[in-house]
Amino acid sequence: MKTRYIPALFLSLTLFGATAQTDNKKSLQRAVTIEKEFTPIVQDASKINSIPEMEVSASERPDIKYTEWKNAREETPSVTILPAGDNGVEAPDRQRGYARIEIGNYLNINANAGVRIIDKTRDQLLFWYQHNSTNGTLSYLRYNNSVNTGDDETKQRRNDNKLNLKYTHIFDNLSWQTSAYYRYNGFNYYGKPLYKSKKDIFGLASTTDQQTVQHYGIDTKIVSKPNKSINYTAEINYKGYNSDLGLFYGQRGVLENHLTTRIDGNAPINEFYNIGIAVSMDNLIYNRCDKESYTILRANPYFGIEKEKIRFKAGLLVDLSFNDNTIFRIAPDLRFEWEFDKLCFLYAQLTGGKSINSWEKMSTLTSYIDPTSSMANTYTPADFTVGLRTTTFKKLHFTLYGGIKYSVDALFDYRQQIIDVTGSTGRLTRPVISFYATDAYAWKAGFEIQYAPRDFLKAHLAWEHNEWHRKGGKERILSSQPRNEWKAGVTVIPIRPLDITADFYMADGLGYRNRVEGNINYPEAGNLPNIVTLNLGAVYRLNKQIHFSAQLNNLLSKRTDLFYGMPAQRFHFLVGAGVVF
């Protein structure tokens, strides 16, 4: 997944989020495609259908959570659920709070803390904080066709802080949930200039690549308790995005406001059949940029069947846009699941719809996006997936899937440099990541194996293939999206206080596309080095309250680029300690 610095193991286990899965397993409505890189691609077939989870022993503990810097291709999303601060301590569900910090080379710091301010049967107030920072020197990779700008090293700086607050009140027949978040993300555009640097254009003039982006939002919703009559959810969500710097030196960033209103209701017809509809409205309002504000109305009427062996949903995804270059869009929403043998499931889905590519959303994929130029929204007429999953063997789970997807205005990354020099004044773009839109289709396939033969041993292996081509063409689209991704890992508990985890990641088929305005001889496209990372981590629990951790990341010390001219960290380590209270 080309989501950089998302700590896949660190964020996937949450201290307060586990209870929401039970109800979701009963509905095919959670069959939602995963946003991978710039357009939705199913990356994990297990998320498509409601299939029993692997049985977990009472003595089994959560995976070791790795650092933000574990994988060169991972990055923290702007909105996170409460991360598990125990780092592997058993059953901390009713603990009051936690705190953890890890420090390593490159001046990497990874810290988080959380506390239950109110923890009663009907009222809960939760607060948590997360910090990630770095300030290390990286070396640029040299390509055979790269232009020599005289820069060999760069300093990567980042100071990322997230605050989250969530309140829940339980009534007799419904619950009211309100949450708020704030993220302060300070970082520098450390990418290598494509042609001329700011020193060549501005001389000794004062310029800065130190960006500050603020994310903030609030969400409030009412959710009915499951019943046999009508189930409903009503929600209002606001997200804000505010960047200080723009694309050009001397230009201000953008201010984006995104307000979403949503109502979702369903009711049973009889024991096996139900109907429902979800209606929403998205209002996006912009300042300090050329992009015009727009509104999208959405409707998703559906009909469902749920029997002992078969689950089926048939619906439509309808979008009505105002001031967004399109007016009316429609896509199917079909999902099918059949348990043809005990714990053996065949599933298929045909979905689509319109995806809003806001700055807030795209910045969760990479912080280094163009902070001024607008991006087209993506419309997917059809996204087909068929797969098989079996849990026949108690300790072994296996998933296999494949499909094809077609999107209008699918987004792919590229780097550009615009130089406009007139006399003694000049304009130059910062080294950002831009996106271009094109109609494209993708073949996708993958498998995942999970194996846990003993309480002290568990392993997993996964492969994912996504190959994008332009509409009507056979040539593969070059971008930082990998063609193949391999993930493998193993966790061993040699003695009860100690967990040891190793994982391996490999990605191939990565590419780049560059554009330098006014220089037709500049190399436009090529291949990025494959990504190969090996990580090792350990947690030692002194007691139920205190633990110590160590991580060795990119043990092979491979050199790679996140994007063209944007190197990732080589070998790095973190050591730290945590407390649960």
UniProtKB/TrEMBL annotation:
Residues 1-20 form the signal peptide. This is TonB-dependent receptor. It is found in: Cell outer membrane. It comes from Candidatus Caccoplasma intestinavium. Keywords: Cell outer membrane, Membrane, Receptor, Signal. The keyword Signal applies. Gene3D superfamilies: TonB-dependent receptor, beta-barrel domain (2.40.170.20). SUPFAM superfamilies: Porins (SSF56935). GO terms for cellular component: cell outer membrane.
